[in-house]
Design brief:
Blueprint: H1 4-16, H2 21-28, H3 32-39, H4 48-57, H5 63-84
Length: 94
């Protein structure tokens, strides 16, 4: 399984915030390609610094940032465990 739940979460929050990938990239200092790769599940475990930048770029504040970072880490850990267990894409979180 790839990090699709992480990407789904990011993509959904980005759309709710009314941002394009380009706008989010400008706000975070990340590349459009990097954001696209996360959303498509090509980066199943994004770096914490990137996740924090994304949270702030999405307009999250205070506890929202903490919860977002924690949820991304949790989704990534579950996806990695599922992949190790051979569950592949059978596990869906979002």
């Amino acid at each position: 399984m790839t990090g699709q739940p992480v990407g789904s979460l990011l993509g959904e929050l980005r759309r709710v915030a009314g941002l394009t990938q380009e706008q989010l990239a400008e706000r975070t200092g990340l590349t459009v390609r990097g954001i696209s790769n996360i959303e498509r599940g090509r980066v199943p475990r994004p770096r914490r610094r990137s996740v924090e930048a994304l949270a702030l770029g999405l307009g999250l504040r205070g506890d929202q940032v903490h919860h977002f970072v924690r949820n991304v880490a949790l989704y990534a850990a579950i996806a990695a465990a599922a992949a190790r267990a051979g569950l592949g894409s059978a596990v869906r979180l979002g």
